[in-house]
Amino acid sequence: MLDLKIIATPHQVFLGTIDVKNNEIVDYYQQNIALHQYPLLWNTLPDAFKNQTFKNTTLLFHPTYFTLLPSALFTPSNLEAITESIAPKNSIENPEYQTNKNGNIGVIFDTNKEISSFFKSINSPNSTKIPLPLFYLNQHTFPTDVKIVLHKFDQITYYIVYKDNNLIFLNSFKTITIEDCIYFLLYIQKETNIEWSQTEVILYGQFESNSSLLSRINDFVPTVSVGINKSQFDPIETFGEAHKFFEFLTQLS
């Protein structure tokens, strides 16, 4: 029996069936999608997906809202109060809370109702949802030097800042233009007080290696690169190329 791995964003969805025993991808599918199409998506998929029962299914997704919280400060009784501090009142219907693998940081998040509906339609005895912020907290060894990682999924870019073996900033922003990306980079520098001369910026995801964004960032950051270390943030550089997607899918736990 195969495992199913899914990445769901408001504009694109990626699915891969995994033969865990042989550590290989069996089928891969991706498409552009609007949120309102998610509830009916399962019935429109190729037979290799919709006619299968999967042993394990993992959904990696961009939450509508999220916030990070030290686990020591969280109790089930204060979930509602914290939720109201990160989003307009009554805008989050089903807030959820998960901790990272070390158990010291938690993520309060909301799953878009259309994506939730799609996930519930999948035939699998073991289903796991992983919000993208938790994925970043769980998967990576924190570097000792200062690094800013930008990971772009369609119109959403995650900004992750590491310093002195610690993650000191994690958030996502809507970025459509290069100016958007630069604006939030400068905002984060102001918030974290990092020195550009001691900072490396790494781009993952839908950033082209010859993008003018690199040269724009280079105007104030001496070290800018496009990530190639797939053991960390696997860059989905060209959608539809399953071999580039494989390691990313098999990392999901």
Let me know the number of strands. 13
What is the rounded Rg? 18 Å
Q: Classify the helix fraction into a percent range.
A: 25-40%
Main sheet properties: 5 strands, mixed
CATH architecture of the largest domain: 2-Layer Sandwich
CATH fold-level topology of the largest domain: Nucleotidyltransferase, domain 5
Number of domains: 3
Structural class designation: alpha/beta
Q: pLDDT average, as an integer?
A: 80
Distance between the termini: 17 Å
- The CATH homologous superfamily name of the largest domain equals ATPase, nucleotide binding domain
Lateral arrangement of strands in the main beta sheet: 3-2-1-4-8
Order of helices and strands: EEEHHEEHEEHEHEEEHEHEH
Number of helices: 8
User: Which regions have little confidence, pLDDT < 50, spanning 5+ residues?
Assistant: 229-244
Shape category: globular
The CATH class of the largest domain is Alpha Beta
Please report which band the strand proportion falls in: under 5%, 5-15%, 15-25%, 25-35%, 35-45% or over 45%: 25-35%
Describe this structure as you would to a colleague.
The structure is a single chain. The chain is α/β, with parallel strands linked by helices and about 250 residues long. The protein folds into 3 domains: about 5-60 and about 110-135 and about 240-250, 2-Layer Sandwich (Nucleotidyltransferase, domain 5); about 65-110, no CATH class; about 140-225, Protein of unknown function DUF3822, C-terminal domain (Nucleotidyltransferase, domain 5). The protein contains 8 helices and 13 strands. The strands form 3 sheets. It has a 5-stranded mixed sheet. A 5-stranded mixed sheet has the order 11-10-9-12-13, with helices on both faces. Strands 5-7-6 form a 3-stranded antiparallel sheet, with helices on both faces.
